[in-house]
Amino acid sequence: MKRIFLTFNILVLTSLSIYAQGQSLNTPNRTAETVRTITIDTNTYSSLFNGKLEPAWVYIGEAKRAIYKGDIPYALYIMNKTIMYYPDNADAHYFLGLIYEKEGGNPAEQGGAASYRLAIEEYKKAISLATNLTIPAYKLDSYFSLLYIYEKLVDENNYANTEKEIITMAENTYKNYEKGRIYFRLAEHYGLKNRGTAAIDYYRQAYINGYRQKLSLFRMSLIYRRMRNYVQEKETLILADKYNFDNVEPSNFEVQKAIVQRLEALRNVRIPKKLN
Question: Checking CA distances to 231, which of 26, 106, 254, 275 falls within 20 to 30 Å?
């Protein structure tokens, strides 16, 4: 039995090696200029796997290290092996999607769009297997990666559908903090797209649901400032100044400093009394 398993492993590794040399990211017809040659250190590979099947986290950890080092071809090689043995591992699909997305580059270039399509498939599989994710936040990351890819591919229908799925997910979440976290991500997304009104709405929802309240209010004030709505900006900053930061981050000092300085600059802006 061991001999059969070892023989099978050798055949699989040989096939993967030949396949990796002939293609980059399963994308056919790439030119010589766009092909990235995959070189694998067989000694490293041998010492890592030692001819036996390891738990999925071993392969995923190796792929994550390769991604961190910028060795995307090796990361791809490892993750394909992981999927081969663990087809229902959600983390493996998430990281394989991440790798394909990194390889996508410009969709107009040969092979770029194909890599993004492969990334879409993997992110969708990660979402469908989300209950098995070791880090639940990867599900939300997958959704926003899909938004980014659909925007790159100018796929308006799938972009709109994914947007709706994220909003529905937030609305159906019973935990306020988690609901706020989704709204905060949506607000950041819309803020980057210069959709100020939508960003304000979702930062407000994040604040109402208790997620990063001080930062949510501060981000709202920045948008009001760009809109030259100085009354709303001042009101929002006064409220933000009453809260503490949820997380200890190096940027906290700069944010608090900006709040104090901006309130000083707005000292002559009068806030109308509200009718009861």
Answer: 254
Q: What is the DSSP letter of 132?
A: G
Phi-psi region of 111 (alpha: psi -120 to 50; beta: other; left: phi over 0): left
Q: Biggest alpha carbon distance in the chain?
A: 84
For residue 140, give the nearest of 82, 101, 181 by alpha carbon.
181
The whole-angstrom separation of Cα 220 and Cα 200 is 5
Residues written for the chain: 276
**Helices 137-152 and 90-104: crossing angle, nearest 10°?**
30
Q: Quick check: 98 and 138 in contact, CB under 8 A?
A: no
Q: How far apart are CA 176 and CA 215, in angstroms?
A: 17
CA atoms within 13 A on the CB side of 29: 6
Question: What's the number of CA atoms in the CB half-sphere (13 Å) around residue 64?
Answer: 10
pTM above 0.85, yes or no: no
191 is written with which tokens? Answer: 């803020």
**Cβ-Cβ contacts under 8 Å for 256 (sequence gap 6 or more):** 245
What is the Cα–Cα distance from 71 to 63, expressed in whole angstroms? Answer: 9
pLDDT tens, 151-199?
999 999 999 999 999 999 999 999 999 999 999 999 999 999 899 999 9
Cα separation, 220 vs 191, whole angstroms? 10
Tokens of 208: 């109402």
| Amino acid at site 226 | R
